[in-house]
Amino acid sequence: MSETGIGKSVRRKEDQRFITGKGRYTDDINRPGQTHAYFLRSPHAHARINSIDLTAAKAAPGVVEIFTGADIERDGLGGLICGWTVHSKDGSPMKQGAHPILALDTVRYVGDHVAMIIAETYLAAKSAAELIDVDYEVLDASPSVATAQEAGAPQVHPEAPNNTSFDWELGNKAETEAALKAAAHVITLDLTNNRLIPNAMEPRAAIGDFDSGTGEYTLWTTSQNPHVARLVLSAFVGVAPEHKLRVIAPDVGGGFGSKIFIYAEETACAWASAKIKRPIKWVADRSEAFLSDAHGRDHVSHAELALAADGTFLGLRVKTKANLGAYLSTFSASVPTYLYGTLLSGQYNFPAVYVEVDGIFTHTAPVDAYRGAGRPEATYLVERILEIAAREIGMDPVELRRKNFIRTFPHQTPVIMNYDIGDYDAALDKALDLVDYAGFPARKAEARARGKRRGIGFSSYIEACGLAPSAAVGSLGAGVGLWESAEVQVAPTGKVEVFTGSHSHGQGHETTFAQLVCERLGVPFDDVEIIHGDTGRVQFGMGTYGSRSGAVGMSAISQALDKIEAKAKKIAAHLMEAAVEDIQLKDSVFTIAGTDKTLPWAELSLAAYTAHGFPRGEIEPGLKENAFYDPLNFTFPSGCHICEVEIDPETGTTKIANFVAVDDFGIIINPMIVEGQVHGGIAQGIGQALLEGCHYDETGQLITGSFMDYCMPRADDMPSFKLGFTKTDCPSNPMGMKGCGEAGAIASPPAVINAVTDALGIREIEMPATPARIWAALAANPIAAD
Amino acid sequence: MSVVSMTVNGKPVTGEVEGRTLLVDFLRNNLSLTGTHVGCDTSQCGACVVHMDGKAVKSCTTLALQAEGASVTTIEGLAKDGELHPVQKAFKENHGLQCGFCTPGMIMTAVDMIERMPNLDEKTVRAELEGNICRCTGYHNIVKSVLAAADEMQR
């Protein structure tokens, strides 16, 4: 095996520019004649706009132009869209109001867009915004998902009565009800999945640049999926015809879902650059990111688990209220439905599962996919109620899991998913070994001697990523296909360029994708270039989210490489005067089986372009192939995370004493990068469990609107992690890969909370389990505090 | 507008700035040194850390005029004669970065930390990184990178 092939921890190609300050993020780009935009945002969660007076602002120094919603409406642009339609129980499609780019007569959350100020400098634009006089009629707001459906609650959209966009269901209702009736034990649980703010370190940004000579628009934007942005902006919003709009997502500083979506700001920058005939740059400051990036999670659920006397699972019934925020963001409807309800069977044999989800509008920022997207919510629910069940029926939580594990594959759950492969015992065994489960009682006693409460918590998770195939997601309401495209172009000198529809914003595709090419063609690692993130260079792409770039994106590259190899062998057969079937390619040299004749890669690639003597009609000149790959199924990564915490009862502070993660991602291309993905996901999950919580007050003001108020995980909040891997090769794609990007964030929160509740001897605690909450729990439970 | 002069990455520079111009904006906009990043507006994230007269400072909370006469080093000035600084090498070798946005600030903080403190251990590194936020790595490999670089530099 080559040192840069599959399975090697090759150091990353992209690092050279990032460690020397030569990364090129959107805000690092400047266009000649560039202006700067600032968005005036609503300070109210809900208000009617009676009038907007721009007179003083337009006269302010440096102001070029100011636009409001009326200008955009006058130009005939459509609003922003949700690309996934779900249906209610009665078969009716989800209800939604208009989602204007800039507000028309109503603002619906703090941070909603009221006016776009364009000026010669950013500070001039920002200063002028203060001179805009908006006459607001402030209205009562419904900021809470728990109460927005109550009678008399202020309404977000007249089109959605009771603030309800949809009431969706999935599973076998009658069988689940019967299971609950017949059960020896029924465990009930009310739980909240706390609202989070993604906070990629690079704030969102955009540059719109219209060329009046060619009529072409170029939009640089912080996107995880530039082709999807182009499609939405052309086909639905109508900013520009698709062939006249180029979207470039250069280096992007993290996404975690929040940069999938098509937002008002980049839309306005592209549109307005043609109005003023100058480039316009907009960069969010962090406060704007807190207010206007799509948030994540925010579920309130009631769950009932039915068990037989011996602990066998009989059924699970779940009712969830999911916050959608004030508008349906690009994929928001899919997150609490098909990415959530479908995972409620977990790793377990459930004869019956039934879930109802109400999608609820509130006067808060839109809620959409954030790392894990629906699957963390499902995993948290399943793994929490299981843990509580184990404690209440007096079984070891490990044994209760084992009793109910799925062990034969493929496995059809009651909630759509057909798990293709897995080995849940193997991951649990390895995790128990890594954590030294047998030694836990001694560690707990030793901690107790120091006055600390030590607890252990498990999470045996499954997730479904690399959403596919297109026909399946289409039948569930997706407005897009979820395949991926790739082109492989071999230059005359033998250098290889790969154009991928995946987009890297930290995942290291320039390295891992090149490793695949090295493995397949044997060319040197430095002779391979991975090109992504530019609709002007890449044919098409669905982008990167839902842990799809390996399983789907690389499979597309693999398929294009199959075609390259086939054509190269055909050319080699012609040049070497042999039968195609006898040509072999190894370490970038073509040979003929049974002879010592050889043809180096670079000679073949040159011949592909000189094309001298190619038999007409049989071999076309050139060596470039493309592929559109549509997988057979989702991939189903699974594993077991175990967390040990130590809690100081005096202060309520929690220290992660030990964190073990064992994951099954199938074939791994670059272990170093995969481990990094797991580390980052776990940190976000620990953040959710212990630190992070987005709060709106009763008037809809965001009170966690900065890094001073919203507790981001810092280095000293985190432990070093112990990782392990098990492997069952995924049968649903040619690479044998499963997604690895979200597993950490999906698996870890219940492991942490199960450990915290174990340490305290309590049934429940809300996330984030802050020192204040833990201290209060101890104060209310003198036995636990003892 | 005022005139400000300083040395940046060993070169004398002069520019016109407003009183309110931040050092980070002077570096990015006047000097096109875009390796120094802005990740927040409350001096919390540390993406903007540079060295001023040998000390790590947050350039988002330093006025350009405060750097008058100072010697400033940014991420672009860390490698010498094309040779990466040991901290840069360690971040690459130990996968101490993913999206790269926090990385310049992390590296400048790490250099300062290692130069100030002999015998760094994991606990100290984690405490010293309090002012730098990373959303990608979970800090695991950043800590590993800093310890590896410290080992290399203090050998």
Give structural notes:
The complex is a heterodimer of chains A (786) and B (155). With 786 residues, chain A is α+β, with helices and mostly antiparallel strands. Helix content of chain A is 28%, strand content 23%. Chain A is built from 20 helices and 28 strands. In chain A, the strands form seven sheets. Chain A has a seven-stranded mixed sheet with strand order 3-5-1-12-9-10-11, sandwiched between helices. In chain A, strands 7-15-14-13-8 form a five-stranded mixed sheet, with helices on both faces. In chain A, helix 9 (375-393) packs parallel to helix 18, helix 14 (509-521) packs parallel to helix 15 and helix 17 (671-691) crosses helix 18 (743-760). The mean pLDDT of chain A is 97. Chain B is α+β, with helices and mostly antiparallel strands and 155 residues long. Chain B has helices spanning 23-30, 86-93, 103-116, 122-128, 140-153; strands at 2-8, 11-17, 49-52, 55-58, 71-73. Chain B has a five-stranded mixed sheet, with helices on both faces. Chain B is globular and about 45 Å long. Chains A and B meet through helix 1 and helix 17 of A and helix 2, helix 3, helix 4 and helix 5 of B.
Which terms summarize this structure?
heterodimer, A: 786 residues, seven-stranded mixed sheet, five-stranded mixed sheet, 23% strand, B: 155 residues, alpha+beta, 5 helices, 33% helix
State the oligomer.
heterodimer
Taking the alpha carbons of the first and last residues of chain A, their distance comes to 59 Å
Largest interface: A-B, 56 and 55 residues
Gyration radius of chain B, rounded: 15 Å
Please write out the topology.
The complex is a heterodimer of chains A (786) and B (155).
Chain A: H1 15-19, E1 35-41, E2 47-53, H2 55-58, E3 63-68, H3 69-74, E4 106-107, E5 113-119, H4 122-129, E6 133-138, E7 164-171, H5 173-182, E8 185-193, E9 205-211, E10 216-221, H6 226-237, E11 245-248, H7 264-276, E12 280-283, H8 286-292, E13 299-307, E14 313-325, E15 353-361, H9 375-393, H10 397-404, E16 411-412, E17 418-419, H11 424-435, H12 440-449, E18 453-462, H13 470-475, E19 484-490, E20 496-500, H14 509-521, E21 528-531, H15 549-576, E22 583-586, E23 589-592, E24 598-600, H16 601-610, E25 624-629, E26 638-648, E27 653-664, H17 671-691, E28 722-726, H18 743-760, H19 771-780, H20 782-785
Parallel strand pairs in A: 1-12, 10-11, 14-15, 20-21, 27-28
Antiparallel strand pairs in A: 1-5, 2-4, 2-6, 3-5, 7-15, 8-13, 9-10, 9-12, 13-14, 16-17, 18-26, 19-20, 19-25, 22-23, 23-24, 26-27
Chain B: E1 2-8, E2 11-17, H1 23-30, E3 49-52, E4 55-58, E5 71-73, H2 86-93, H3 103-116, H4 122-128, H5 140-153
Parallel strand pairs in B: 1-5
Antiparallel strand pairs in B: 1-2, 3-4, 3-5
Helix pairs in contact in B: 2-5, 3-5
